[in-house]
Specification:
Helix content is about 25%, strand content about 35%. It contains 3 helices and 4 strands, in the order αβαβαββ. It has a 4-stranded antiparallel β-sheet. The radius of gyration is 17 Å and the shape is elongated.
Length: about 110
């Protein structure tokens, strides 16, 4: 969780939430049954962040260059400004809400 908070912050994004997929996190990793099995298991989760498009590009680049394998399966976005009728100045950057569906793997 800290990794995603740090990378989001470093790239001008705000991490709103992380939601793990049902069944993604099993019981204790050090249980006898688990330690005997050395299978690689997928762990899926959803990241909700807000910020600019450039920040998202840099955040994705940080995930790509991470030593841990992350697979971004989908990206959804919406604009908070699209729901408002206020006129913005050209110098303001648009802020978006992004939801990334991500998968990683663990033993």
């Amino acid at each position: 969780v800290y990794f995603f908070q740090k990378k989001a912050s470093d790239n001008g994004l705000t991490l709103k939430s992380i939601v793990f997929s049902p069944g993604a996190v099993a019981g204790p990793a050090n249980s006898p049954a688990k330690s005997a099995s050395r299978e690689v298991k997928p762990v899926g989760f959803s990241l909700n962040v807000s910020g600019g498009y450039g920040g998202l590009k840099n955040f994705l680049s940080a995930l790509e260059s991470s030593s841990r394998l992350f697979q971004v399966e989908s990206i959804y976005f919406s604009s908070a400004e699209a729901q408002q009728s206020a006129v913005k100045s050209r110098n303001q950057l648009s802020t978006y809400d992004f939801r990334l569906e991500v998968k990683t793997y663990t033993y």
